[in-house]
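Data availability (excerpt). The following record was deposited with the supplementary files.
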Amino acid sequence: MLRLSNKQARRLWLHTNGIAQPQTGPADALQIIRDLGFVQIDTIRNVTRAHHHILWSRNPNYREKQLWPLLGKHRQIFEHFTHDASLIPMEFYPMWGRQFARMAVKMAKWYPNIDQTTKDDIFARIKAEGALSTHAFDTKIEGPREMWARPPHKKALDLMWYDGTLSTCFRENFTKFYNLTDRVVPDHLRSPKGSDTDQINWLCTAAMERLNFATQGEIQRFWEAMDAKETRRWTETQTHLIPVEIERADRTTYTAFAHPDIEHRLANSPDPTSRLHLLNPFDPAIRDRTRLVALFGFEYVNEMFVPAAKRRWGYYVYPLLERDRFVGRIELKADRSKSEMYVTGFWPEPGVKWSAARHKKLDTELTRFARLADLKHIDWQAQRA
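Predicted structure:
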């Protein structure tokens, strides 16, 4: 059985994610999304929102204004749910039929009390008036105001968005506007392509292409569009995949699936640049926390929903990657009205010495990141190591 050392596995993974050697020249946001498969979007704008940060990490020339025209004007991407709300290349839409069906079943369980009349009324308004956001409706939350409570109109909009009846038409100041799907998605893409089995095959194949080597669980978690049994049945039929032994960061090994040309892919993966990368918590390179620990020995937990007193680090903490290892974590906040970015927390990884040269790399990366958000000044409020 072919064995990939931990260093080889890291190198191939970072190259596949477009981080090993960031692009130069004009940024092609659409091609980056195609290469990654999707880009998660998130409402929190600590400095810049996750989707902008992820694209910028692949090409530092990317700017925030380049993304949303791909959705609202050019119809080259659509928005739907992978593991979370994501932007997906529009040409993938015909393979997304099973995900609409899966999410419709799931959401019906989450929102069991939405009557058809509410949905029909909202659909009729959008049909007559055009794209509307949730702010166009005024139903009230029923029952206790819990964290994830939603008013009836928001639940109805969610149900029709998840099942594909409605689509995101555009976003304005990140507010989602809904429209009828046949007004958003080109006619030739709206019909599902092939059977359910065909779609599973496409999804798993596309996941493997972007993972290069993967366990069954990693294939399933890539899109979150099939369950464990469906993924297992797919792997059992893929006689062209080969088993490989992957060395973990702790020097133990595990068996994964790989393409027959895995050695060719590895040979064509350059060593990671010495640049220090400030990664977003939702970056696809680190999103699968199980894979992250296995390959890099780096434990990362999003603590946004952890009470402040129980956090080990901070509210919005960015991992710091240098070459092929994580060297620390940093917490940043921004005040765009003052054009300021604040360093509010800094945690070197155990055993990593922060020399003057490494600090200089960090300062360079922070300056680049501030430029993305059009911030002019960086204020260190945390203690440097």
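Summary of structural features: The radius of gyration is 22 Å.
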